[in-house]
């Protein structure tokens, strides 16, 4: 996680971003009421457009009136079998309301959870009381498990993202040692061959003079 302009996090991030935006930046904003929840999947190639409140790269969103409430509000992000669902409880009734539902979301394994924020022209005070994580038990066929393992960059079906090269896995200590060792052996071998050829060239040069 690196600090940046996208709600306190870096731009062109890699992963899933869920944003709670409290202030409209787009001047002719009529069809949306803020605060507004939106989601974005990025493979490191997209910039979040603040001037348009992220509309060009948004997967979906909904209004969430979370200011000046006297009770806790809740947000659920659920990801099961490439299906992303975001729900909220902001009325104090302990009832979930649908916000975003997107099928075909592909997220790699080994990512991290994080929260960030940034203060713009409008200052608010929002407290994150807790962040609870649950691992869901999901039965997959061998084909589904292989497809799940083979995801290296975030993507969304039927949504064209600029292509990025998947990051290569880091080299193990043994692999790194072998690369360095054979590089040194090759360098020494090349130097020895160079010295032999140079000596032969000198001998032939002396013979021509005699």
Automatic annotation (TrEMBL):
Q: How does it sit in the membrane?
A: Single-pass type I membrane protein
Which positions fall inside the L-type lectin-like domain?
A: 1-136
GO-annotated cellular components: COPII-coated ER to Golgi transport vesicle; endoplasmic reticulum membrane; endoplasmic reticulum-Golgi intermediate compartment; Golgi membrane
Which GO BP terms, alphabetically?
A: endoplasmic reticulum to Golgi vesicle-mediated transport
Write down a Pfam family by its short name.
Lectin_leg-like
Task: Output the Gene Ontology terms for molecular function.
Answer: D-mannose binding
| Entry's transmembrane regions | 174-198
Localization, UniProt: Membrane
Keyword Electron transport included in the entry's annotation: no
Keyword annotations for this protein, in alphabetical order, are: Membrane, Signal, Transmembrane, Transmembrane helix
Q: What is this protein called?
A: VIP36-like protein isoform X2
């Amino acid at each position: 996680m690196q600090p940046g302009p996208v709600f306190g996090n870096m731009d062109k991030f890699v992963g899933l971003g869920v944003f709670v935006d409290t202030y409209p930046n787009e001047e002719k904003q009529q069809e949306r009421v803020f605060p507004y929840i939106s989601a974005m999947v990025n493979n490191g190639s997209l910039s979040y457009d603040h001037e348009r409140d992220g509309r060009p790269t948004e997967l979906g969103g909904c209004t969430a009136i979370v200011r000046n409430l006297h009770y806790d509000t809740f947000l659920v992000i659920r990801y099961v079998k490439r299906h992303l669902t975001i729900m909220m409880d902001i009325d104090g009734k302990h009832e979930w309301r649908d916000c975003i539902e997107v099928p075909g979301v592909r997220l790699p394994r080994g990512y991290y959870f994080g929260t960030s924020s940034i203060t713009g022209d409008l200052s608010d005070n929002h407290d994150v009381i807790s962040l609870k994580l649950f691992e869901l038990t999901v039965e997959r066929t061998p084909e589904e498990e292989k497809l799940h393992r083979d995801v290296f960059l975030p993507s969304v079906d039927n949504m064209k993202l600029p292509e990025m090269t998947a990051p290569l896995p880091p080299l193990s200590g043994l692999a790194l040692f072998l690369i360095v060792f054979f590089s040194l052996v090759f360098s020494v071998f090349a130097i020895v061959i160079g010295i032999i050829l140079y000596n032969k060239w000198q001998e032939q040069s002396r013979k021509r003079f005699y």
